[in-house]
Amino acid sequence: MPALLPGTATLGVLGGGQLGRMFVHAAQALGYRCIVLDPDAISPAGAVAEKHLKADYLDPLGLAQLARDCDAITTEFENVPAVALETLAGMRTVAPAAAAVAVCQDRAVEKAHFQAAGVPCAPHAVIRDEIELAAVDPALLPGILKTSRMGYDGKGQVRVGSREELATAWQDLQRVPCVLEQLLPLRAELSVLVARGADGQLVHYPVQQNLHRGGILAVTEVPAPDVPAEVQARAVAAARQVAEALAYVGVLCIEFFWLEDGRLVVNEMAPRPHNSGHWTMNGADVSQFELQVRALAGLPLPQPRQHSASLMLNLLGDLWFSTAGGPTPPAWDRVLALPGTHLHLYGKSDARHGRKMGHLNITADTPDAAHAVAVQAAALLGLPTDF
Ligand code: ADP
Ligand code: MG
What we know:
By secondary structure, the protein is of the alpha+beta class. The protein has three domains: about 10-95, Rossmann fold, CATH 3.40.50.20; about 125-180, ATP-grasp fold, A domain (Dna Ligase, domain 1); about 185-380, 2-Layer Sandwich (D-amino Acid Aminotransferase, Chain A, domain 1), CATH 3.30.470.20.
């Protein structure tokens, strides 16, 4: 298929969240028009696209209109019904493919894919019924019970220490299909973003070191401060293997656990740009969103180059409630007085606890300098400075 040249085509996005918004910004910078399909009348991506189609992801008329008006279509979240992508693929170029997204939608299937690709993941058991529940290997306890589908930001997860707790937790999760994972001693959490074109060309960003708080990403640092080059090379090789095995097209993020004993296991993957890659908007010469645009349009994928030490702080709605009374915006003017700070807000008007409102990128000549500014910014915002 010939490339969709910049300035000549319309790109569609399923989903209207912040990832869609940043995709739209990158696509528009290259001269593409964008159409976002999202059932919600108010959406971060719908607000910046040339057109917002308010339709359900399974509405045949909405999908047909999207296919008619767009030259190629992507998704900004992995829980879009795979059949929507399949329907669109019958009419238009779609990336990533429905089959790849379907693998990412189900933790059990995803883990089977990792194993088939020869990449180790956490010891686990699939629990779909009473028999599988009773057969769980006690060596998996203490563990984390996770719903197979629809989990994100630590939602749909329960830590369990005993068989009794496991049974109760599964009951509390409405006995939906789950995966029980052994609780692993983590030295650090890492992620690797790769981008692969339809022609098989595959590029990647440097390894990202991630700190989560309450199951939600809080801080990403690149280069990964605590991780030896040899471990980083293993993570990149594993990420490439996972993407190749899926014949993946687009940006893919693979999350890893680096364990106390030095082993590296894959945790999960996301078939799209990822929160841990937001630093690329300011710290690399090509952002993860531009790579997603390029992969979708069939343009060349240059190996991205990190030009600045980078650190990202996630900005949750909690920051708006640091003082008594109604929601108040944080003192951005004071934060932006710090050198190398880049604020990205997603245009969400109502701040809520735990809601991703934006992120702050910090770039500098050296990792130490980026870190020092990030600690100052965090202190100004009332965020923990324990990173
Ligand atoms: P989500 O889809 O919500 O991101 P994850 O499976 O990535 O779900 O889990 C969220 C976080 O919980 C991880 O980033 C990690 O901090 C912690 N976690 C998940 N699984 C394990 C595990 N097996 N051992 C230790 N910590 C874990
Ligand atoms: Mg995760």
